Amino acid sequence: MDSALKIGIAGLGTVGAALAATLAERADYLAELCGRRIEVTAVSARDRNRRRGVDLSASEWFDDPVKLAREAEIDVFVELIGGDDDPAHAAVRTALARGCHVVTANKALLARHGVELARIAEENGVILNFEAAVAGGIPAVKVMRESLTGNRVRRVFGILNGTCNYILTTMEREGISFDECLAEAQRLGYAEADPTFDIGGHDTAHKLAILTSLAFGTEIAADDIYLEGIENISIEDIRAAADLGYRIKLLGVAQRTDTGIEQRVHPTMVPVSSEIAQVDGVTNAVAVEADVLGELMLSGPGAGGEATASAVMGDIADIAKSRPGAQRVPALGTPADRLAPYERARMRSHEGGYFIRLSVEDKAGVFASIAARMAENGISLESIVQRSRDHTVRARPQTVVLVTHATMEAAVRKAVAAITSEGYVLGTAQVIRIERPIVD
Amino acid sequence: MDSALKIGIAGLGTVGAALAATLAERADYLAELCGRRIEVTAVSARDRNRRRGVDLSASEWFDDPVKLAREAEIDVFVELIGGDDDPAHAAVRTALARGCHVVTANKALLARHGVELARIAEENGVILNFEAAVAGGIPAVKVMRESLTGNRVRRVFGILNGTCNYILTTMEREGISFDECLAEAQRLGYAEADPTFDIGGHDTAHKLAILTSLAFGTEIAADDIYLEGIENISIEDIRAAADLGYRIKLLGVAQRTDTGIEQRVHPTMVPVSSEIAQVDGVTNAVAVEADVLGELMLSGPGAGGEATASAVMGDIADIAKSRPGAQRVPALGTPADRLAPYERARMRSHEGGYFIRLSVEDKAGVFASIAARMAENGISLESIVQRSRDHTVRARPQTVVLVTHATMEAAVRKAVAAITSEGYVLGTAQVIRIERPIVD
């Protein structure tokens, strides 16, 4: 058997502690599968004295993760610190530059510095693995950068945030409001005290930026993402979607178009009979459409200490099975110096179906006016439904729900602006894009 | 750039031709991703003069695939001949023994000779890749043997045969009989003229045998599989299942139990709200439950020339990216000499829910008798429903549908035998096992 693979872990939160415990508990089993032992020889965290349920006394302790990355006697640096800045950034750069392999679960770091880090890894002939950074335990990174090699991807999309999916699933299942759901999610630990990062779609955007690069061989462009969160999704939207045979999911979507690559994160209506519509609760999913392979979907746990630790363990095992310095799998699938610049397709030219829900005054001519404004903008309708809660009472607000055939976003925006300017719309028009699992 | 990776392809049917065409068409792109060119330098097939839509004139032609494997100047031997016997078996052995990597899509060969071939590959320090052999384009093999490294698998199950899934989906969707569906599937090319191998579950069993070995680190035991095909599933079963909130799928299931590992292929009722119930038509799916990761599901194209060629291309790209002779990923996940003997758990001790549909004479006491026989065998019922098609006509056969709570297969068999011996059952009792996507 070869000499042991020495691991340094920086960051001993839920994931780091689960990883250290698992590596220790099944050390013999892993050695059998990998042909060499995997040993945690160095660790770093903020508080040395915190109880973590795992004995780390045999590992060298570092207060400073960058010092660990620079000085510890290790083959692999595992970064579980988090954040797109130092010390995570400095530690990963330092480890790669001195010829250590790196495994990280840090999506924010990769979304911002992924191309730079991939380049440093390739220049130094070491592996940069980050399976846990996208969709937690789902092996989306490996599948995209290894299994799909040679395919041209048309679209990749996914449910990439468990908090949002839990909230949307629970709103539908229990018929309760967004605010009630969020409070429950916070109580259960599925949502942070400040939930903005999740429900605003920022977390999904980080993961999507990485997937886009893997899918299309482009540089990571995390700031060039159209972003809409789920905070304005109401129980009325969910009910209207269900009536029409759809479910609402927060999707991250990247798609090749004639004018560039779309990257967008927004609430999306998907047909209730599609596989992705059945992805419930905190479960995540990644779907990809590739020209040779066809359509592939992966679903599983997108977060959680154990699932994330499993992905990190798989990344470490890949390194243990490979020859040192022999790495030819580029971190982002395409070698860093061959990545194409990202060309952004504008949302104005996005093409798809739209769901539009309007609350309008109950007066003659409103329905006809709405239909006329849509027609003037060249939008053909799949359905238009007018509803009032109580037919016995007149002069109450009426709800009008429109579903368009595939059309241009610019046209929808113009039509909605024209309708709004007529003065009979109460509140704001709700517009939700429809995503079909299969692009026609 | 390193020297080109030389490929020999034996077998130029749909998959082989699609593979050769794709490798030629995107040669530059693959070279960029893999760091070396991939060149088809030798080919073999039965008929040299058949038109295949791809120019193979630059490749050396061999009439005999074993001769190609033995003599051609190649780094990788791609076996697309099929069959568990010679020449496929001899050719793969020959190639591995002389130090060539092998990529194969041949499930029958692996189900029968997989352990032997894995051993030869490991002894010679070469790679044996077979992603296309299980569930076509779905990267189940890579995920099982690489991403899940270190996990203990509890259960793996899947929809592994597109023909069966197409038939079951179409029966439900169009309300037509098994025979009508099979005829349509044959017309569309989704089923063979002799469909026994598919609809009898044998093809699923081959794939399951490979998955079991990958999941549990055991020797392949393709003959130790409980097997039931879909030929006795009627439209009445599908309707009764739908009424109860289930869909019928042909699943291959391998599961660790107290008495060994169950391997079984049979029609299965899955909850209609589960992800796997939404896997329609010729699409395949593989689901796995692992102790650290949790539950993961992959779905995608299980067959077809292009999807299969994509999986083979991914296997070749993995080899192109690796150092020659540096392979430490064992073909079956666990090194061949460490594979545990397969210990079979008997179907009699299988535990789960059961759906039982009986056609009975319409006379007093039948319902009570059925309930009594179930109770005597310690079986508790989730539901029992008696139906007649036409309530105005008496003395017609009645249908009784029972759904049991989790119980032992032996008890169900005993109860059904007791009920049948009462004399009021018309025809044969239909018994279908229920599979829950999450094991409680």
TrEMBL record, chains A, B:
Family per record: Belongs to the homoserine dehydrogenase family.
Alphabetical list of Gene3D superfamilies matching this protein: 3.30.70.260, Dihydrodipicolinate Reductase, domain 2, NAD(P)-binding Rossmann-like Domain
One GO biological process term: threonine biosynthetic process
Entries under InterPro entries matching the protein: ACT-like_dom_sf, ACT_dom, Asp/hSer_DH_NAD-bd, HDH, HDH_cat, HDH_CS, NAD(P)-bd_dom_sf
UniProt-annotated catalytic positions: K207 (proton donor)
Descriptive protein name: Homoserine dehydrogenase
Parts forming coiled coils: none
Binding site for L-homoserine: E192
Pathway of action: Amino-acid biosynthesis; L-methionine biosynthesis via de novo pathway; L-homoserine from L-aspartate: step 3/3; Amino-acid biosynthesis; L-threonine biosynthesis; L-threonine from L-aspartate: step 3/5
GO molecular function terms noted in the UniProt entry: homoserine dehydrogenase activity; NADP binding
ACT domain boundaries: 355-433
Enzyme kind, highest EC tier: oxidoreductase
Enzyme Commission number(s) of this protein: 1.1.1.3
Residues noted as binding NADPH in the record, renumbered to the chain: K107
Organism, as annotated: Pararhizobium mangrovi
Keywords, sorted A to Z: Amino-acid biosynthesis, Methionine biosynthesis, NADP, Oxidoreductase, Threonine biosynthesis
Positions bound to NADP(+): A10, G11, L12, G13, T14, V15, G16, A17
Family matches, as NCBIfam families: PRK06349.1
